[in-house]
Amino acid sequence: MKKTNFYQPVKIGVLGLGTVGSGVTRMLAHNAGEIRRRAGREIIITHAAARNLNTITANTIGIKLTEQALNVVQDPEISMILELIGGYEPARELILCALDNGKHVVTANKALIAKYGNEIFAAARMARKIVGFEAAVAGGIPIIKALREGLAGNQIEWVAGIINGTANFILSEMQDKGRDFPEAMAEAQRLGYTENDPTLDIKGIDAAHKLTILASIAFGIPLRSEKVYTEGIGGITYEDVAYATRLGYSIKHLGIARRGENGVQLRVHPTFIPKRQLLANVNGVMNAIMVKGNAVGQSLFYGAGAGAEPTASAVVADIIDIVRNLKTDPESRVPYLGFQPEALLDLPVIPINEVETACYLRILALDRPGVLADITRILANHGISIEAFMQKETHLTASKVPVVLLINPVKEEKMNKAISAIESLDSILAPIMRIRLEYLDT
């Protein structure tokens, strides 16, 4: 049997030796033989930079360490840079510098790609280098590769996903254990599922970054993070979760990108999903992304969306891909966003006011004659129809009653006007809770 001809090792510099960086060093060491067989060459980390060398826990035997990331980026011995420090700056500057110095780049930085990806990809094309970013979305789920390559023969109609594990864990705790939001949030923090500042997770910003990337690859449009409508889960109560269950739904925090005749929808928000849907049964910190292609129909991608090992898995997959393509003509490589750069379409992003969805309304009203009639009259005056209705006295007082409605699909602008009119009634005691509803059938 002919022996495989392995070339000189590929030398890598790592920027950031935190959770993901440590996971990558472990994986490259533990799976070195398998990785070498797949890539055709040995892959070794020779240089690494960290903000504070006294606090790193990664195995750094044989690695030249420095606190100056620029030293790693400019080292002529290195052919590839892993950017794992996160944030916008200095990550953006370092990646551009690496490309300018003739190095390929792998990053797990979804915020950076969502905001500055257009600039970074243009610089990479000029430098004839590769930027890998599979780890930027959904951790160990190879969704970017699936959209760019596996589903390339399809016109993608929509993408909908649970793409933030922290938010999904909190909503799962509320549904499965009857916890209200603050208690579920505290449990997520206790288990280490949140950052020190959980704002990006709870307000939906992290999910919006990921949706930006998914939508660009799905539809062949430029990255437009500023156009994503973003709503978090902070207003969801156990009461809403309980009503969802009684009505046959689950509440999930979804990123939704949908292409239509007038443009694309880009939105992140809590969503009612029918229990029969696969996404409705994805719980805990797991991620899942559903893709609808015009040829393949619906496909579901499920797995761990964060953590050292799953994210490291995606980073190492990008490294192997780059090594395989080192001698490939740059014009023959898979485009960064799945479409040839000159073929990207500047499709309009539909404002949220023009989006049409069904929705759930929870209205706290005085328990007196005529209240329900007033609510239904206002809805009818705005051309809004009701699919389902539920009314039950609370255990608090007999004078207050929650009214729960499921509304048939209606434009946001029309729904907003009706909500304002209902809230102006003197019988309405609190702002109305509105949660959008998606069936995900078509």
Question: How is this structure best described in words?
Answer:
There is one protein chain. The protein has 442 residues and is of the alpha/beta class. The protein has 14 helices and 16 strands. Strands 7, 8, 9, 10, 11, 12, 13, 14, 15 and 16 form a ten-stranded mixed β-sheet that branches. A hairpin with an 8-residue loop joins strand 14 and strand 15 (400-411). Helix 5 packs parallel to helix 10 (205-219). The longest helix is centred in the N-terminal third of the chain and has 18 residues, at 110-127. It is elongated and about 80 Å long. The model is unreliable at 1-6 (pLDDT under 50).
Entry keywords:
Rossmann fold; Alpha-Beta Plaits; 3 domains; ten-stranded mixed beta sheet; six-stranded parallel beta sheet; 14 helices; elongated
List the helices and strands and how they pair.
Layout: E1 7-15, H1 19-30, H2 32-39, E2 41-49, E3 64-66, H3 69-73, E4 80-83, H4 91-100, E5 104-107, H5 110-127, E6 131-132, H6 143-150, E7 156-162, H7 165-177, H8 181-190, H9 199-202, H10 205-219, E8 229-230, H11 238-247, E9 249-260, E10 263-274, E11 286-293, E12 297-304, H12 308-324, E13 356-366, H13 371-381, E14 386-391, E15 400-411, H14 412-423, E16 433-437
Parallel strand pairs: 1-2, 1-4, 2-3, 4-5, 5-6, 8-10, 10-16
Antiparallel strand pairs: 7-9, 7-11, 9-10, 11-12, 13-15, 13-16, 14-15
